[in-house]
Amino acid sequence: xxxxxxxxxxxxxxxxFSQTVILQEDFNSYDASALTMPAGWLFSxxxxxxxxxLSGASGPNAYQFGANKATINTPAFSNADTLKFWIKGSxxxxxxxxxxxxxxxxxxxxxxxxxxxxxxxxxxGKRKFSIKHSSAHLRFTYIKSKGNLAFDDFSxxxxxxxASFSTDINNGCIPVCSNFRDLxxxxxxxxxxxxxxxxxxxxxxxxxxGHCYANPGTYSVKLIVGNGTSSDTLLKxxxxxxYSFPVAFFAALTSASDPxxxxxxxxxxxxxxxxxxxxxxxxxxxxxxxxxxDSGTYCPVLYVSSAHGCADTVQECIKINxxxxxxxxxxxESQFSVFPNPxxxxxxxxxxxxxxxxxxxxxxxxxxxxxxxxTNEQSETIKxxxxxxxxxxxxxxxxxxxxxxxxxVSGF
Length: 412
Description:
By secondary structure, this protein is mainly beta. The two termini are 38 Å apart. 1% of the residues lie in helices and 51% in strands. The strands form 10 sheets. Strands 1, 15, 18, 19, 21 and 22 form a 6-stranded mixed β-sheet that branches. Strands 2, 4, 5, 7, 10 and 12 form a 6-stranded antiparallel β-sheet that branches. The chain has a 5-stranded antiparallel β-sheet with strand order 3-6-11-8-9, with no helix packed on it. The longest helix is centred in the last third of the chain and has 4 residues. The chain is built from 1 helix and 39 strands.
């Protein structure tokens, strides 16, 4: 029996946005003459700042709004959603204002923003606005009270994509099989490509992939989405937690002078226990004692759970002799042998004393399955490759056999 316990995950997420620049102008070549006006722009007044003290950060020149109601119109554009520019006033002015308008046809205009008060020389004048996707023209109009206004570092960009995703399961016992769902949005066009990194060496380019985590661990998941012009990356750190199973195992002991069978838990990574003694009685004590009323063969079962709710079971059959108040439980060594143990290279020969179909499973100390094979042979050689030296457990499960032994990979 195996069960799953859902718990909340603690994770962080990081975005890496990317947008396409659609129109950009830094006025570096403009010197207040009509001949140097940037292509496609319309100026009602020609004025320029040509000193680094008054121009923007991108270059030596800036456009100068030096007259009342001076206007500039941008070239036509499409697919933009973000406006950026830099402005600086030549004096403190709470009356003068810069009016920003947008239009889809250069006939009907809507006010996007009114900038007032204007910044002084000491203030960084970077501005950023979201514009309508239908807009194809922008106009800037300066209402002058006193002083002039520098305008520079104009930029239009678009195609913003915001990556987002969810999953139905991100915590559980191995294998954790999750169905990932893309929840990304885009300001225009459609999302056309997806790149998933599940954090365990596996990847996918599907929109809504499924993925199973076979090994215990904590995994970060990354999604990159794009719409042909822009992309966004979302990284959710420590998003998936896959927990190992405990390994259930126990021993049963008694003596001729004591009718009580002492059960000793020898499980790995267990925090709770549930015993079924095979005669209708049970216990939740880790190392219980139990007295059988009649002679016979009983097959007690131990159910164990880990701290994360992952569970495992083991069943061992014992023979009770009421006349001698003794218990006969075949030793592990009498049921199967392992040679060599320890092994330098992870090769073990497993020999069973009984015939029939059986499953040989090897676990690490955290309960993770290293290898599983099904065989009808009484003797089987297993080769554990790509593992670290240390302690492992081999379990033989069959109709006439159920036992666990500790094995050691010593390394070279």
